[in-house]
Description:
Helices cover about 30% and strands about 20% of the residues. The protein is of the alpha+beta class. The strands form four sheets. Strands 1, 2, 9, 10, 11, 12, 13, 14, 15, 16, 17 and 18 form a twelve-stranded mixed sheet that branches. It has a four-stranded antiparallel sheet with strand order 5-6-8-7, covered by helices on one side. Strand 5 and strand 6 form a beta hairpin.
Amino acid sequence: MAFKSLSPVLLAGLGAAAFVLAGCQAKVSRPPCPAGEVCLAYGSSQEPGSLDPQTSNLVDEFTIIADLIFGLTTDSPEGTPIPAMATSWETSPDGLTWTFHLRDAKWSDGVPVTADDFVFAYRRILDPKTASIYAYLIYLLKNGQAVNEGTAPLSAVGARALDARTLELTLEHPAPYLPELLKHQSFFPVPKHAVEQWGDGWVKPGRYVSNGPYRLTRWALGDHIEVVKNPHFYDAANVCVDRIHYFPTPDSVMAERRVQRGELDVNTSFQSNRFTRLKETMPDFVRAKNSLATAYLSFNTRDIPAFRDIRVRRALSQSVDREFITGKLMRAGQLPAYGFVPPGTAGYAQGARTAWAGKPLAARQAEARQLLKAAGHGPDNPLSFELKIANSPDTILLASAVQADWAAIGVDARIVQNEGQIAFAAYRNRDFGIGAMSWYADFNDPVTFLGLLKSDTGGQNYGDYKNPTYDALLDAADREPDAVKRADILRRAEQAALNDEALIPIYYVVNRNLVSPKITGWVDNVGNFHRARWLCLKK
């Protein structure tokens, strides 16, 4: 799942200004909490673009959607899959047919949740008219890709309602990780009756119908989103928090002050280079843990001929000083990345690395200059392009460092900053030279990373990487029942992509949350999934 120039000196100045303002503002500002209710103020990086589970694609959107809508499975406090709308399921001996038994549940307007809502949702996300960036995940269902490409009717997708509370899914290949995948928003149901009435406008407050612990009541753009406890949720009696206000917090230093003042109970990010300071000043609030996520850069190979040359891609990748970025700039435990799939990913044989990973930086940069020269770039014809980034503090620091590394080998990278939603829209439209992004695992399996680079993935394969050998390896892994052999096939696929310099891995991400000590039920986990259903606040 995707996300996430000003100089470091200017950033420090902004942080100091935030501190002064915080000191001048003694009054704690929170939305009113009705008497007798438990209310949560939740900071979440940026304004969502959509709360539709089948058209959204960013982590901050998923955070809210997963509190509103439940799929067949959901996240436990530890981030592992547990039954949700499905109470149980069986799998055929060949692993291709899964039968799910649904609980007796209702949407927030009192209409029953049925198996047909799931079938409707899967046809909707695969419908070419929906243009979902996540449609490729549903290719796992029989005929999913053909439906999405318009060569088969919507009715051909491998999902059918055997009755109102029995759903049958037929897969293209065995997928033992399916319960993990079903936690993802792309596999969530949508209320067929609401979508048929309102079309894409069903997501507006007053129309939004949910089956999870909360229902949407207000969305004040640029200010906050309000959700309240859903009385029709099947486990409503065990949900502690009555009301949640989600605030976009792009200024992480100001958000830090708001947490400290008690205006926010949670914020899902803090500036990496403030980690040590925060551990000293707010030790009980800082929650940092290695994540299943990788920060990387993508090349626009579709529109920029220079990036189709592997010599250019290799020169740019190997000249980046990852140790400086993680050890001197970020300083929150991030690890240099010379591969794409992060450590700790389940069912994987780690070991794929860029061919030049073991060389000293000076040698790599000298080789990079030679590669650029061989590709026709030098003082008389310098390589020049835009480095487009989202304007989060960590990404700004990263971009400044990479820009300096590339200047050292004679490359001119001009940093262009955009608000996060705008930046990712530009990436999807290929309106960038090189883009900076992070990928957070949608489910705990290497395919969530390696699937991005398949030639048929679509919009989220930002670099338009295409390699028939790579595709064939992923297809072979899909059909390999032996877990050890599958892991090795996937490792070979990753190595092929790294040999092609398909992207520039930079570092393995650390989850960075600020959580008030008043919060109970928060469990740090590698997926960074913290569903509000499990949270409460001490009096």
